[in-house]
Amino acid sequence: MGALDFAFLDWDIFNKFVLKGLLFSIELTVLATIGGIVFGTILALMRLSGRSVLVWPAQIYVNGMRSIPLVMVILWVFLLMPFLIGRSIGAEISALVTFIVFEAAFFSEIMRAGIQSISRSQVMAGQALGLTYSQNMRWIVLPQAFRNMIPVLLTQTIVLFQDTSLVYAIGAYDLLKGFVTAGKIYGRVEEVYILAAIVYFVICFSLSTSVKRLQSRMAIVR
Amino acid sequence: MALDWQVFLEDDGGGRTYLEWMFEAWGWTLSVAASAWVVAMVVGALMGTLRTVPDDRPFNRFFIKFATAWVELFRNIPVLVQIFLWYFVVPKVFPAFQQVPGFTLVVLGLGFFTSARIAEQVRAGIQALPRGQRYAAMAMGLTTFQSYRFVLWPMAFRMIWPPLTSESMNLLKNSSVAFAVSIAELTMYAMQVQEETSRGIEVYLVVTALYAISALTVNRVMAFVEKRMQIPGVVVARQSGGGH
User: Fold this and answer.
1) Which helix (DSSP H) or strand (DSSP E) does residue B92 occupy?
2) Which residues pair with B11 in a beta bridge?
3) Within the 81-100 window of chain A, which residues sit less than 8 Å (CB to CB) from chain B?
4) Does B182 touch chain A (CB under 8 A)?
5) For burial by CB atoms within 10 Å, which of A108, B103, B107, B112 has the most?
6) Of A192-206, B23-37, B195-209, B225-239, the least confident
7) Phi and psi angles of residue B11, each rounded to the nearest 5 degrees, phi first
8) Considering the domain A11-221 in this protein, what is its CATH number?
9) How far is B142 from chain A (nearest CA, A)?
10) Model confidence, pTM
11) Domain B16-229: which topology?
12) What is the domain partition of chain A in residue ranges?
């Protein structure tokens, strides 16, 4: 065994370096999930609308996003945002924009599956009650689709949380960067990677375990 | 903002054009992804299978626990962190790894990360088979290994081929994280050339297109294999949304 030394570890490191990054990672995950679900639902509705003027752009967007690496999207947004809005924005805002536009494509696939899982007779019952298309979606289809897809949406959120570490590419200060910064200052570069892995593992493992529990409970209800 | 494609014909200062460098980078991306794919498929198939072995023997119960732990460990740590662990931490903790080239370490990192996802698909595929298939194999007098080799695997792998296709595409896309440990692949190339030439848009456009072409090729190759292996009348697993 080589020489790893964790003696430098104390709460100071957590408070000074890690906490700030952890908060940003969580903030990024939560905001990107909300934004991704909102835009993803719109994309899913466009794809299911049956009007080619809406179907095609949504389809190109979703398939395009799904065939390029997230890191490239992070770099693209970071490069283009200053051109688009005329001034430079921080890596953190740029990361948030990236995750919303990127995750929207993935959430839209989930929402589409959710909407398609609702039986036709539900829609027909809504129509028989005289609901318009949008009322039908708003009150009958989407609430059920969303509810059925909660476990899948949460699983995607865990994937998203792991992927927030990729903002490393543009130097945004997230959980991983917090550890890396502390490692550089204390001269313990290797050790902090292990600590980062442990923290990510504990968070993701406990989240995925609770999603599994939720899934089995929902399976009984239905 | 006019695009200037001449940039690809310029010299990078080392006697090659940016275009030549780009194809070299593409080669690195493809070789990292292809090597990691082999690791991921072999280890993923093994771990996924081990999770489904009959639990009537203590040895097997150990295997099930081990494979479950494997999957949870490699699935719940971000791929970038895993790459850092392989590249920086493993050689420090195990001096034997200091002789191993960085390329191999990245391939192991990406491969093991993906193996956890493939193991989940393999497990799901085997468990989706009717229980009677396994019992029939036992009744024929096949050993556990033989029943996997001749009865369960041939069916399960055909059923999970579509999700394996998207995992393979994910692997190709995830190979982009190798930039973080200075493997000279496409993302690294894009970042470096953008810095040297300030022609980010042109470079990113081409690199993004190369990724999309590569992903599409993987998709077509896997679809070709799927078609060739297809058993008439057998329906395969549907893909669900999400994942990366």
Assistant:
1) helix B90-93
2) B17
3) 83
4) no
5) A108
6) B225-239
7) -80, 140
8) 1.10.3720.10
9) 35
10) 0.91
11) MetI-like fold (1.10.3720)
12) 11-221
